[in-house]
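Write out the bound-state structure for zinc ion.
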Amino acid sequence: MSTDALVLGIETSCDETAVGIVRGRKLLANVISSSVEEHARFGGVIPEIASRAHLEAIQSVIKQALSDAKVSLKDIDALAVTAGPGLIGALIVGTSAAEGLALGLEKPLYGVNHLSAHIAVDSLDSDHKLDPAIALLVSGGHSSILQVNNLTSDVKTIGTTLDDAAGEAFDKVARILGLPFPGGPSIDKESENGDPTAILFPRSFTLPKDTEKHQYDFSFSGVKTAVARLMEATPSQNRADVAASFQEAVVDVLLIKALSAAKNSGIEHLIIAGGVAANRRLRQLAQERCEKAKINLRIPPTKLCTDNGAMVAALGSLAVSAGIAPSAVGISASSSSGINKPIF
Ligand code: KG4
Ligand code: ZN
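---
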């Protein structure tokens, strides 16, 4: 198959029913139907509601993506689908749809890792070299520092969170502050009017005594508890100042660790990916610090940071051009797959 294969990618691991189409590394379509509004009143994603929403949306999202890309199903050279990690019922809707299409069209299918796909989206619409790189992967379920030796076959975790993921911390703190779900975008917006230096929240595992054991690890439960205690003790706190100061603490720690991983590994490319990479303060401070440290920073466009189908198609397309064998029929979706398995 040519390196300019037409690949359709399906993402249904959480609350976005998303389909992307790429030709090689060129993005042709990226359609997303989100059930986030249906979950908002519960303050978190309800798996059953997500699965049902995927079932209702999947066919029309596929059709819209084909129409946007100006291609038809018979033109597709290969399919890719998120096989894990994610909500199991939600994943099964996507893998079943993808397998049905692959069997019907007699085309290869790649079950891909959602976390690797977040990083692979960096390949789109550019021909820069992808690996080796250090990746800071920050989403609702994961916060990791990864050494990406080869995006489709060799990714190693060098640091991870010991408790909450960064996005989870944003979501929980937003709830404490009475801001709407999902918390990341709410805190990002609220922080616009706040002073990030108003309150000095804890930065876990950044002191010399911790760095030996947890040099690249994170812990966000301390900062979340600190916000909760502060709001309990003084509910009249200026909410924008608390949001901005919390955001500053999280962003500061993420970047201290990611930049030191890049420096210490001698790999001067840093990719920041996952939903939290949409955060404006993280993007701005990353730019400033990487410029100073002479690290080549790459962050996907904001709309490609949160869950989407383009990232799945992008990783599928990289697998095709690397000559990786497609997944066997009967991909089993896995809720807890680790990053060490980019392609299933
Ligand atoms: O990657 P993603 O869309 O889904 C997962 O794979 O988890 O990430 C979702 C997470 C949520 O926790 C959400 O609050 C966070 O990303 N997020 C943000 C922003 N936009 C989304 N966090 C901080 N600032 C943002 N602008
Ligand atoms: Zn994600």
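---
Strands lie at 6-11, 16-23, 26-34, 78-84, 109-113, 133-138, 143-150, 154-160, 269-273, 296-298.
Residues 133-299 form a domain with the Nucleotidyltransferase; domain 5 fold (CATH 3.30.420.40).
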